[in-house]
Automatic annotation (TrEMBL):
Pfam families: TetR_N (PF00440)
DNA-binding region as annotated in the record: 26-45
Domain (HTH tetR-type): residue spans on this chain: 3-57
InterPro entries: Homeodomain-like_sf, HTH-type_Tx_Regulator, HTH_TetR
GO molecular function: DNA binding
Keyword terms, alphabetized: DNA-binding
Name listed for the protein in its UniProt record: Transcriptional regulator, TetR family
Length: 57
């Protein structure tokens, strides 16, 4: 797992949350914005909650 990719996922999630509200952001939306398939996103983070935890680190 690339740390840079994880950081990119966290950054994109923050951007989407700022636009739509965190509750309205889905894993599909995150994957689409990054340009990867949803299963690939799950290789980096098991859930949206795990991404949110990484946002606070």
């Amino acid at each position: 797992m690339s740390i840079n990719r994880k950081e990119e996922i966290v950054q994109i999630t923050l951007e989407l949350a700022a636009e739509k509200g965190l509750a309205n952001v889905s894993m599909c939306m995150i994957a689409d914005k990054i340009g990867i398939k949803k299963p690939s996103l799950y290789k980096h983070f098991a859930s949206k909650e795990e991404i949110v935890e990484a946002m606070y680190e």
